[in-house]
Amino acid sequence: MRKPVQRSRRPRTASSGGTLAPAAKADGRGLLDRILDAPHLAHVVPRLPPEMLHRVIEYCGLEACGELVALATPGQLARVFDLDLWKAARPGHDEQLDADRFGLWLEVMMESGAAVAAHTVAGIDVNLAMAAFAQHMLVFDPAVAPPSESADGDEMPVVDPPHDGPASSVGGYLVVGKRTDSWDAVVAVLRALDSRHHDYFHRLMRGCRIQSNSGRELDGLDDLLSDREQVLFDAGVTRERRREQQGYMTPAQARAFLQMARRSSPGRDTTPAANPIARAYFQALEWTEEPDDASLRLTTGSGERPLAEDSAAAMATFVEILRDAGVLPEPPRARLDGPQGAAPRLARIDALMQFAADRDPVAFARRGQELAFLANTIAAGCSLQARPFTAEEASSAAVATCNLGLENWDAGAATLPGDFLIGHDLVSAFERGWAVLHQQVCLYAAEQLIAVLKALRGGDRETRAGLNALRMALTKHWRAGAPWRARDALDVMAILDLPAWAALLGLIDECPVMHAGIGVAPGSRARQISATAFTFISENSEIAVIHAFMRSLPETLRG
Predict the structure, then answer these.
(1) Given 433, 465, 497, which residue is the final one in a domain?
(2) Any idea what the Cα angle at residue 10 is, between residues 536 and 396, rounded to 5°?
(3) C-alpha angle with apex 386: 432 to 534, nearest 5 degrees?
């Protein structure tokens, strides 16, 4: 099963800045109060892109967002579920359905009443509903269970002893809880589905009943998915197909693309063959024209007629509230207007994108689509300092890597022709830059550190044991081309020099970055090193600084 990652349909320009620092976030409750006080909220929320609504829910907490959820449409929430109910254990790994999160969603939706909650559930794919509800309950047909007598003399079905959770009768089915959390919400939503969405209810319950009754072959020789596993698989595949139409790709595809890019040859001055993953991606992507101003006007929840101008202003106010809180990034600040004064970082890609924008809008739009593809590929298939990328970080990393690739495109040319990006794609530039990062930063830093560790002497017995374990782990993973897998063993370096340790963590990584620790004077023994004080590497001059840092590392550690 493939799990996708979003890519934007709208061209993006380079983001403004390479150094990343977390935005100062307002208190989630304070932001929610500002949102709820915003004008025309009942008209604004149903018009929000699901991704924006999801970001608000993530920021403020689902438990606090019941009023916003009540204003959203079933179609919006179905898209939000695709984003919110699936979690990966680690960055770049496949996502799994989160049963606890689904239970919490039911509780939040129940705040608006069982009828509203049932209406929302009936709007989502039934395979997803089967997979999610089956995490909370077992479903049996009471007719097949032998009756027993209750204390008041009424007959009631007997539940198999292993299933000793809470039980209820709903719509002619016996429902037994597999967990107690969210149980009341589960039962209440099922009863509302039975009374208001009868056909959907019976499809859901039949699917859950099949999962409840399934089991392995008695001889243990079967090699098939169980019914529950098959339903989860089907729900995941259906989700993928749905999201691929919205411009998403999978973690597996992203990992494969990035690994292929690492193995490319950055020294060639010819255009590399088109990457098959990127080619398939863009062949499947529907290229759409930008909507005109009329299509972007705010409408009512029913979509029947435009709203008043003050409601359109309310949407702008809502978006501005989110930007003030750091939930949404600031809009691009015209990076393509050309450099002023000293050459800024990313000047190469800025100038080439500006030329494409002026001379060939179609090529410019495609370059924007490629940047979106690359940013989301990084976010889907890679980690940053052992954590997921934010959307802004992934975008900045993609632009910086493309700039590095353009700088290394032709070793014999000082500059590329102005029309380069009209005839060349940014995916190829990214592949070249990604290979440079892997070979001249990640692998280079690991190799140099191994040599330093071999010659390093001194320290107490525990420190020497840790350094020896680091050298062995780093050598093993360096030979395999993935030295970042020795990340945990690098902690011993913090004992010797804290800035050097922070710098090495940034360099020996899936996505190498240039940490501010590289600029700390040797022997300073700084005690406060921010994990976010880094820049994405975009120029050969930065790689030269990194190489100089690694050559000075023995002296730094001895000091």
Answers:
(1) 433
(2) 5
(3) 65
pTM of the prediction?
0.66
| pLDDT tens, residue by residue, 135-164 | 899 998 866 555 554 445 554 554 443 456
* pLDDT recorded at residue 124: 86
Question: Does some domain include residue 243?
Answer: no
CA dihedral (171, 176, 181, 184) in degrees, to 10, reads 30
> What local confidence, expressed as pLDDT, does residue 334 receive?
37
pLDDT tens-digit readout, 264-294: 775 554 555 678 878 777 776 644 333 333 3
Residue 67 lies in a domain: no
Residue 180, CA distances (Å) to 108, 118, 177, 183 in order: 16, 20, 7, 5
Look at residue 296 and tell me if it is in a domain.
yes
Domain count, the chain: 2
Give the tens place of pLDDT for each residue, 516-534. 878 554 445 555 566 568 9
DSSP 538-557: -SHHHHHHHHHHHHHHHHHH
Residue 478 and residue 546 share a domain = yes
| Interior angle at CA 266, CA 262 and CA 267, nearest 5 | 150
Is residue 97 in a domain? Answer: no
Strands 248-249 and 513-515: unpaired
Domain that holds residue 521: 435-558
Strand locations in 214-330 (E): 248-249
The first and second tokens of residue 437, run together, are: 């990062």
Mean pLDDT in residue range 499-516: 92
Q: What is the pLDDT of residue 326?
A: 77
Q: What is the mean pLDDT of residues 17-39?
A: 63
User: Distances from the Cα of 34 to the Cαs of 41, 217, 253, 320, 324, in angstroms?
Assistant: 11, 57, 40, 11, 11
Residue 419 in this model has a pLDDT that exceeds 80: yes
- The torsion of the CA quartet 266, 267, 271, 272, rounded to 10 degrees, works out to -50
Q: Are residues 421 and 272 in the same domain?
A: yes
Greater pLDDT, 237 or 17: 237
Instruction: Clarify whether residues 348 and 427 are in a common domain.
Output: yes
From residue 220, alpha-carbon distances to 162, 185, 227, 233, 272 in Å are: 21, 37, 16, 21, 50
Calculate the average pLDDT of the chain.
78
* Distinct helix (H) and strand (E) counts, the chain: 24, 12
Q: Using CA atoms, how far apart are residues 352 and 366, in angstroms rounded to an integer?
A: 13
If asked whether residues 423 and 445 sit together in one domain, one would say no
